[in-house]
Amino acid sequence: MGWELDYRRFRVWLKEKYHVVNAYLFIGFVAKNKNLYTYLQEAGFILVYKEVTYDGRGMVKGNCDAALVLKTVCDFYEKKCDGAVIVSGDGDYAELVQFLKEKNALRIVISPSNKCSYLLREQNIPLLYLATQQKKFEAYKYKEKAPGADETAQGSSS
């Protein structure tokens, strides 16, 4: 996205705005990312791990699409959810979104970037581009300024 998402604030927003009780995050498991997984769980996400594979360039592929679709449909039919918020702009979820729409169980699709598949956009569904909410969710990193860098007075006064 070109900016870092504060997952804690995002999770609170999902709960307050869309009444999301269980927020599942489907993610490929890479052992060196243990701190990230801990942070995401502490932020309130339920992680669903997938085994990863590597492409020809050594890039990690989690391939979580089928797991997300299966979990969503099972939860719907088992009456474990009354509505879904899908965070993806991927057209691979078009059939899932159509299913949820037909069942009146789609609250919104949130596209992480300004690019969202036509297969989702054409469905006349509630759609939000996360980039439009950047100021709400951007993770700010504290950067210590060098003394005098902001032209304020230095030293002490009495």
**Under CATH, the topology is which?**
Rossmann fold
* Major sheet size, sense and barrel closure: 3 strands, parallel
In CATH terms, what is the architecture?
Answer: 3-Layer(aba) Sandwich
Q: What best-fitting shape do the alpha-carbon axes yield?
A: globular
- DSSP summary: helix tally: 6
Q: CATH superfamily assignment? A: 5'-nuclease
Task: Give me the strand/helix succession.
Answer: HEHEEEHEHEHEH
Overall number of domains: 1
Strand order of the largest sheet: 5-6-7
Helix content: 25-40%
Assign the structural class, choosing from mainly alpha, mainly beta, alpha/beta, alpha+beta, or little secondary structure: alpha/beta
The CATH class, by name, is Alpha Beta
Mean pLDDT score = 84
N-C termini distance: 48 Å
What portion of the residues fall into strands of 2 or more residues?
15-25%
User: Can you tell me the residue ranges where pLDDT is under 50 for at least 5 consecutive residues?
Assistant: 142-158
Radius of gyration: 20 Å
Q: What is the tally of beta strands?
A: 7
Organism: Candidatus Uhrbacteria bacterium RIFCSPLOWO2_01_FULL_47_24
Pfam families: NYN
GO molecular function, one term: RNA nuclease activity
Domain NYN: 3-117
Can you describe what's shown?
The protein is of the alpha/beta class and 158 residues long. It has a single domain (7-137), classed as Rossmann fold (3-Layer(aba) Sandwich), CATH 3.40.50. It is 32% helix and 18% strand. The chain contains 6 helices and 7 strands. The chain has helices at 7-18, 34-42, 65-77, 94-102, 118-121, 134-137, and strands spanning 23-28, 45-50, 53-54, 60-61, 84-87, 106-111, 127-129. The strands form 3 sheets. Strands 5-6-7 form a 3-stranded parallel sheet, covered by helices on one side. β6 (106-111), α5 and β7 (127-129) form a beta-alpha-beta unit. The model is unreliable at 142-158 (pLDDT under 50).
